[in-house]
Amino acid sequence: MLDLFVTPLTTILITGYFSLTIFGPIFGFFETRLITGVQFLLSIPFGIGSAICGVFYAPIVVVDVQHMYHALKASLLGATGENAYMPIASAANVAQGAAALAYGIRSKDKKLRSIAFPASMSAFLGITEPAIFGVNLRFWRPFLAGILGGAAGGLVSGISHITSNAYGVTGIFGILITTDHSLSYLLMMAVSFLTAFLLTLLFCRNCPKDLFENDAKTPDLIVAAPLSGTLIPLENVSDEIFAKGTLGKGIAILPTSSHVLAPADGVVTTLSPTAHAIGLTLNSSIEILIHIGVDTEQLHEMGFAPLVQEGETVSLGQSLLLFDPT
């Protein structure tokens, strides 16, 4: 009872004290300097500073500190009544969405396409995390194309002096708070979209096929039976952990021998302390678990005689374990 009361209270008091007296002021100092730096960049003429801001927006999203820009936007609105950073954020978001869309179109992988298309739509509406983390960062080229698209859109925004009269919404619906610059805003999004989309197609033109075609035929992997016996479906095993596939797919064998053999070439990566199970990593990097019996860990090594050790390299047909079937 005391633990349930004292532990949370003490934790909050300690962390709250250090947050308010040490960490808060430190990060507040850096945040203020960063906001000052962004405001300086926005003041650079010919859209150059806005393009630089467009470059750094997506990487800042990756480290999840983009919310600090709410303070910047509020500061801009309070000082001038206009928010020049919001259109740049929109350009960066649209560009990442366009890159994810292009990569999805380029890909032959149905699973990747099912991620890329809705993620791109989310980015067009201002939420880029699904596109960035689900697609673009995984293959880095679309992420780079999105950064360049954000820079191109930021350049247009800076040259056209696009501003909004509020903050909190980006992407397509950002046009609702940029009504004084509607045509320029649409042009900015078009430039961001086309730049990122075309660069993604260009960057990925010579990408290895395995990045796009997971449905291509691969050589069949042949794994021999580890012992003689009658093959039965895994779901017929009385242990629910195996029957329900919790540990993965597999088969079950009613043994007629007491010799467990290596089903393929590989390395012994796991040998249970009770010697009733052996884990192998095959040369094809596939991991296999050979489990002898049900609830046999309770025998505490009785009836099991391992013939190999962890880390040992084994070959197809090599003896791994002897066990007493009785």
Notes on the structure:
This protein is an alpha+beta fold and 326 residues long. 50% of the residues lie in helices and 12% in strands. It is built from 9 helices and 9 strands. A 4-stranded antiparallel sheet has the order 6-5-4-8, with no helix packed on it. About 2% of the residues have low confidence.
Task: Output the keywords.
single chain, 326 residues, alpha+beta, four-stranded antiparallel beta sheet, three-stranded antiparallel beta sheet, elongated
Layout: helices, strands, pairs:
Elements: H1 2-42, H2 48-62, H3 69-80, H4 85-106, H5 110-124, H6 129-139, H7 141-160, H8 182-203, E1 229-233, H9 240-243, E2 251-255, E3 259-261, E4 266-271, E5 277-282, E6 287-291, E7 304-306, E8 313-314, E9 319-323
Antiparallel strand pairs: 1-2, 3-9, 4-5, 4-8, 5-6, 7-9
Helix pairs in contact: 1-2, 2-4, 2-7, 4-5, 4-6, 4-7, 4-8, 5-6, 6-7, 7-8
Low-confidence runs: 212-218
* Rg calc: 29 Å
Task: Determine the fraction of residues in helical runs and give it as a percent range.
Answer: 40-55%
What's the helix count? 9
Q: How many β-strand runs?
A: 9
Q: How large is the share of residues in beta strands?
A: 5-15%
What's the pLDDT, averaged over the residues? 85
- Helix-and-strand structural type: alpha+beta
The SSE order reads HHHHHHHHEHEEEEEEEE
What is the CA-CA span between the terminal residues? 51 Å
Order of strands in the sheet with the most strands? 6-5-4-8
Q: Shape from CA axes?
A: elongated
Task: Please state the oligomeric state of the protein chains shown.
Answer: single chain
Main sheet summary: 4 strands, antiparallel
